[in-house]
Amino acid sequence: MNETVNAERLLEHAVAELLEERKQLLALFCELAGVEPAAESAGMQQLQRFCQLLIDYASLWQFEIHDLLLRTQDNHAAARAMLEKYQPLILQASDAALEFNDRYDASDHLLDLSEVEAHLSRLGEVLATRFDAEDRIISAL
């Protein structure tokens, strides 16, 4: 029983953290979408921060919330059913996030920014689908 209570607290904390990171991710996404080409160095810093936050966000769901939901199975049957239904969409969005990060994280290669706007647009669509799926699971908690 104590483990379940602890898992419940961890799940509550992880969901709150996810929603806060989502706000930060969306704010940075909007900033990136409005960066003028002349502000390239500022845009590069934002892009790097966005990539890091994007990976942190994707990891938080997969390695904390997903696992905690599975550990609290008795208390959250409805959320687990939603997780089973929507997890493939969430994983597709994680793959898109990883692909975006691999392309635009400048830590190990030079960047080609010629298509960043198009890639951001596609990523935004995938993230919107993911946010909706996450919200459906969270609302079932």
Architecture overview:
This protein is mainly α. 82% of the residues lie in helices and 0% in strands. The protein has a single domain, classed as Regulator of RNA polymerase sigma(70) subunit, domain 4 (Four Helix Bundle (Hemerythrin (Met), subunit A)). It has helices spanning 2-33, 40-71, 77-104, 116-139.
CATH fourth-tier homologous superfamily: Regulator of RNA polymerase sigma(70) subunit, domain 4
The CATH class assignment is: Mainly Alpha
Question: What is the strand content?
Answer: under 5%
Number of domains: 1
β-strand number: 0
> How widely separated are the two ends?
18 Å
Nearest-angstrom radius of gyration? 17 Å
Chart the SSEs and their pairings.
Layout (H helix, E strand, L loop, with lengths): L1 H32 L6 H32 L5 H28 L11 H24 L2
Helix pairs in contact: 1-2, 1-4, 2-3, 3-4
Short description:
It contains four helices and no strands. The protein is mainly alpha-helical.
Key terms:
elongated, Four Helix Bundle (Hemerythrin (Met), subunit A), mainly alpha, 141 residues
